[in-house]
Amino acid sequence: MLTKPLIESIRYYIEKRLSPERLAHSLSTATLAKDLALKHGLDPQPCELSALAHDMAKEEPKALLKRLSRDCDRLLRKAGQEGLCRELLDFPGLFHGPAADILLRRVFSLADERVLEAVRWHSLGTQGMGDVAKILFIADKLEATRSGIEEDFRLSCLSAGLNECLLRVLERGMEHQMNRGRGVAPVTRSLYNSLRGS
């Protein structure tokens, strides 16, 4: 069950472990996620909690993140769910989402799949993700401390419906990746295609 004390415990956890910049990003993401949930008629608590927790493992040692990411994959497969995509298992910059999933389970005994899914997939997204995951994905990319986002684009996205907003954020992110000479993860492209109706 998601409660105010649990949210406050996670807030305290990240305040003690994250750099001031990462903490400001997480708090800003949580504010936007809560606002988006209310705008779209969703329960704000799982959205706020997932946003507070999404980068909770970001500054942990890479070896620990890799181990926790692999633990997450094993846990999902054991439960009969689809495991993590290759990118979440092979690229150190992406380990923190699945690692945060495991920390939420182990440290906070959290079992709310809406929150765990959102945290696990917040970097890449995944086809079929729920509304809490969509809100976290959007809030993480559009929150006020995020650099490189023009205010007109941000406001345009935030005024759209949830799926349209997600589509615009995905398009911007994919364009950014390609302009930097990087590929787009297949799981991200599949999400994009599903939203476009392809």
Topology:
Blueprint: H1 4-17, H2 20-39, H3 44-53, H4 62-78, H5 86-90, H6 96-108, H7 113-121, H8 131-142, H9 151-159, H10 162-179, H11 186-196
Helix pairs in contact: 1-3, 2-3, 2-8, 3-7, 3-8, 4-6, 6-7, 7-8, 8-10, 9-10, 10-11
Structure description:
By secondary structure, the protein is mostly helical. The chain has helices at 4-17, 20-39, 44-53, 62-78, 86-90, 96-108, 113-121, 131-142, 151-159, 162-179, 186-196. The protein is globular. The mean pLDDT is 95.
Derived from helix and strand composition plus strand pairing, the structural class reads mainly alpha
What's the Cα radius of gyration?
16 Å
Instruction: Give the count of helical stretches.
Output: 11
Give helix and strand order, one letter per element, not per position.
HHHHHHHHHHH
**Helicity, in percent?**
55-70%
Mean pLDDT: 95
Tally the beta strands. 0
C-alpha geometry? globular
Oligomer: single chain
Strand percentage lies at under 5%
Summarize the structure.
The protein is mostly helical and 198 residues long.
Feature tags:
198 residues; 11 helices; mainly alpha; single chain
